[in-house]
Please model this.
Amino acid sequence: MSEFLNALREAWSSLPHLGWWITLAWLLYLVPLCTWIILQKREPVATLSWLLSLALLPYVGYLIYFLLGPQRIKRHQLRRTRSRESVESYEVFAPSDGNSAELPMLAQKTTGLPPSSATSVQQLVDGCATYQAILDAIALAGNHIHLEYYIFNGDRIGQRVLEALVVKARKGVKVRLLLDAVGSNRLKKRALHALVAAGGEFAWFHPTRFRPFTRPWLNLRTHRKIVVVDGRIAFTGGINVTDDEDESLRDDAYRDLHLRLEGEIVRSIQQVFVEDWVYATGQQRKDFQGTHLWSANDANVRGGIAAQALISGPDSAWEPIHRAKVSAIHEAKQRVWLVTPYFVPGEAARMALTSAALGGLDVRLVVPKVSDSRLVTLAARSYFEELLAAGVKVYEYGPRMMHSKALLCDDALAIIGSANFDHRSFRLNFEISMMFRDRGVAGTLAQWMEGEIASSQRVRLQQARSLWRHRLPEALARLMSPLL
Model:
């Protein structure tokens, strides 16, 4: 060992300027990258987290940031503008519910989608009922079927859906299937051959192609789950197409919530799909000739259920779903109940929840006892002490993975969709949620939430918790919160 150290000292002495060159190389790497990140003017905590991480990983950190760092899509905004020109305009009808108009206006200003209405809203629990309802709707299709999913696997349920689509495509129904290139990467291209041969269309959202001098959109995914049939029936929510969410096939299937919708609100969901399809494929309005995007019977599309589509993604700096949820919490007068599989709130969301609890509202949070991400589970638990101290009732659902995403405020406001309560859903993923201002919809959601709470274990403040098993791992995971 001493001989090795002596040799190392001799080598170092023979290169007296090596340390200086290493320092210079590190500065040349760090200064431009830090300037690039700082000029993006993001939250200080997130910016400092990236700066610290990149400073500790010279050059490798640049590659990580290049692949996964925050991005804004200017071209996406331009293409969305063009795609909206291919969608027919429609008159909206927003029935008055006696509540403040601020929240619907905020949603419209940040998303471009106006308040609307529904004639029917059915809340579907778990995959088995959801898949059957979707298959039934597909069987009735006469003009078109539009689908957009984050995860679409080629397993048993995936094959059932694909077979149903092939049958309709052969009968002349226009089928368009848009899948996220990362979330659906387990689906083999050969599984889609029959659909394409039958006349159906298929496209990848943000395919993982690497091009020289171009940042890949590896970290910007469509997390949306959308099905639109004949512009008359729509499905959206948290359930993907996979056996992992079918409780009839797996005892440990995810616990989840989905929606079946009819009425004018289907037009908003259709518009979101068309914009995503045009963006992903580059098609134009002429490519939708023969597709009746809206229900032909306008007399039956207006209903008494106030509904509004909320969308968000990296193409908008407003974080619409984040703003809507925080605003809804601030607007609440009696209760705030939140169910989410991934709970990694920013400062605004955390302050809204704790302020509501400190103000005497009934604030409840339901999260999975163990999620499919150990890091996210630890990060979520790092917030429990503050929430519990403020009076928030925290529950952990198990043994199945809770994958539902829902917010209930008072007796008339409900938000259900694909967006988790975390940084990724609020800023990076393309998400869609539905906001209802209706006592019937909210009452059904409240009843379901009561059942989930009854099946959960309440979290209590603990005086003595292990430093190495609990407190330190949770604190370290929390440091990664802005990056999750």
Notes: The longest strand covers residues 305-312. The first helix runs from residue 2 to 14. Residues 143 and 172 are 8 Å apart (CA to CA).
